[in-house]
Amino acid sequence: MRTRRNLVFGLAALPILAACGGEAAPAAPAAKAEPSKAPAAPAAPAAAAAATKAPEPTAAAKALKVGLVTDVGKVDDKSFNESAWNGAKAGAAAIKGESKYVETRDPNDYKKNIQQFVSEKYDVIVTVGFLLGDATIEAAKANPTIKFIGVDQFQEKPVENLAGLIFEEDKAGFMVGVLSALVSKSGKVGAVLATDVVPPVWRFGEGFRAGVKFAKADADIQIVYHSDVGPEKTFDDPEWGKATALSMADKGVDVIFGAGGKTGNGVLYGVAERKDKGVLAIGVDTDQYLTVPEAKAVLLSSGMKIIDQGVSDLIKAVSDGKFKGGNVNGKVGLAPFHDLDSKVSAEIKTKLETIRKDLDAGTLKTNVKPAKG
Predict the structure, then answer these.
(1) What share of the chain is helix, strand, coil (3-state, %, to 5)?
(2) Percentage with pLDDT > 90 across the chain
(3) Which of 71, 108, 295, 305 could form a disulfide with 167 if both were Cys (CB 3.0 to 4.6 A apart)?
(4) In what helix (H) or strand (E) does residue 181 lie, and over which residues does it extend?
(5) Cα-Cα-Cα-Cα dihedral sign, residues 102, 268, 17, 169
(6) Can you tell me the distance from the alpha carbon of 226 to that of 14, in angstroms, rounded to the nearest whole number?
């Protein structure tokens, strides 16, 4: 696990956590009692009872089974679903449990996929994405002994065995917007995103808009949402993401933020084709310098939601008996600048750090509503 300098809200030190896996350690064989040659003295009744009654297993001692249901963006999307899966694997490994995922290909399969883990008697079920919210609530109410973790699922009415892992995407988007505006040479910046029907995506986009305006009021802002397709396509359309990013670049946009699973990855691939024109990209959800190597040369940073750590911590809370239902706020921030660190001046870095602290303290507001509408 490597620690990098990072702009993560609410932290003095700014780590990025890398998920890790592991196998459950085999239990040590029970010691076999040898017969005594001399007659044993009779045990006291209380002692005999204690000796014959096996201790009840504790939550921490039990090897928990952790199942994860992806959204339609797929588990190898190099951002949202993949980050949640990394967190599930890390959390299960930390408690010497086991983990497994089911990949959703059609939104009509949400309930069926969750039920698969219910039927297999899994202890923890993680569902990934706003669109799985209703199916997750229904399953949690029907199975009160199973703990559920809903990533990007705000809980209006808390359910005791369901934790909604949510993030302040508008703050991460705001930081991305400020960075984009201050680094841009043309004064034209853009964002290419999945559907604005999904509140977290909308908050990323509108936070980006607010950050750009805050840093440079006269900047030319172009924001495009992929809202003309169904949920099965909006996060899984790298061709559209790439084509839209290339169109923006051809119009003089020189910093482009891509957000929305594989659709957002397409933005990074498109910008990589314009590296000779000086166009820069910003990724999303995780540090995409590590997950989309094709874009390393043009990737300025990523607007992160620390999903893997949030999922892993909640799984550990189940094992420790400290799990609580309701909303749990995960961390957000900016990834390191990596190879393009020289593109960000010391003055910009200082300004970003001041803004981060002000957002964290609440003295600076993004003025983005909690949800669209």
Answers:
(1) 40, 15, 40
(2) 80
(3) 305
(4) helix 169-183
(5) negative
(6) 32
Provide the residue type at 169 as one letter. E
How many of the other CB atoms lie within 10 Å of CB of 239?
Answer: 12
Average predicted confidence (pLDDT) for the chain: 86
Q: How far apart are CA 151 and CA 68, in angstroms?
A: 10
- State pTM to two decimals: 0.81
CATH 3.40.50.2300 is the classification of domain 169-305+332-361 = yes
Phi-psi category of residue 209: left, alpha or beta, with phi > 0 → left and psi -120 to 50 → alpha? alpha
Packing angle of the helix pair 169-183, 199-215 (nearest 10 deg): 40
Query: What is the Cα–Cα distance from 17 to 309, expressed in whole angstroms?
Result: 7
**Neighbouring residues of 87: CB distance < 8 A, sequence distance ≥ 6:** 19, 126, 307, 308, 309, 310, 311, 312, 315
Where is 282: in which H helix or E strand? strand 280-285
**CB-based burial, 335-346: b 16+ in 10 Å, e otherwise:** bbbeebeeebee
H/E run at residue 348: helix 346-361
Q: Which of 263, 190, 253, 254 is nearest to 226 (CA)?
A: 263
Distance CA 259, CA 191 (A): 8
Sheet-wide strand order for 299-305:
7-8, 332-334, 299-305, 280-285, 255-259, 188-193, 220-225
How many other C-beta atoms can be found within 10 angstroms of the C-beta atom of residue 45? 8
Task: Count Cβ atoms within 10 A of the Cβ of residue 218 and give its class: 0-12 exposed, 13-18 middle, 19 or more buried.
Answer: exposed
Which H or E element spans position 222? strand 220-225
- Better-scored residue on pLDDT, 72 or 349: 349
* CA distances from residue 158 to 115, 140, 198 in whole angstroms, order as listed: 21, 11, 20
Neighbours of 355 (CB within 10 A): 20
Map out the domains of the chain as residue ranges: 169-305+332-361
Strand ranges for 70-184 from DSSP E:
98-102, 124-128, 147-151, 162-166
Residue 231 pLDDT: 87
pLDDT score recorded for residue 371: 52
State pLDDT tens for residues 191-220.
999 999 999 999 999 999 999 999 999 999
